[in-house]
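User: Can you predict the 3D structure for this chain?
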Amino acid sequence: MFYDGQGFMVRADSNLTTLEQLDGKNICVVSGTTTELNLEERFSQLGFIYTLSAFTNTPDAFKAYEDGVCTVITTDQSNLAVKRNGFSDPKAHTILDATISKEPLAPVVPHGDSQWLDLVKTVMMALINAEELGITQANVDDMVINSNNPAVRRLLGGEESFGQSDLGLEADAIAQAIRAVGNYGEIYERSLGENGIGLQRSLNLLWTQRGGMLYAPPLR
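Assistant: Here is the predicted structure, written as structure tokens:
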């Protein structure tokens, strides 16, 4: 699960930091996309006057931005972060803390494979719960042995069951997964966060943290 949304990237030396400052600017966008429609709708609501530089594909839009054809480029924030990471000087570009659409993403599996769907959903929920419970790649083995929290012990296969056998999983399957890749937060930081493409967690923080929307049903 990943909460994405349409954002904006500018040059760090442009001194542009808010959505309101984009009024009157030249904005690069890929034509014929929901990105273009979202931009037109939101800026019309705000009463912004702007210049639209539309391109038929993503590479051309980003090349135009790099060449200075436009001051701003807009697409999903994850895409902005990936493209920025490929620039010669990523730190010279800033993704604004402004989102104008909701683009939730989740794993996709082949239609009709219900067991695989159940497994993917279960592991995803387990890794989110692991972060909330403080289980990490570094401490999972200690948690298996020493934790007296029933939710932790159930998740890691040390007490009761949340239905592992019904899914064809070993009792300690989630502990194995955490040993391999860590919890949700660790995966995020390694792939998308400061150690990855530099994308802030924002809505993808746990629901217990300010601004976060991420939670999973408890497994029991």
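The two ends are 20 Å apart (CA to CA). The chain has a mean pLDDT of 95.
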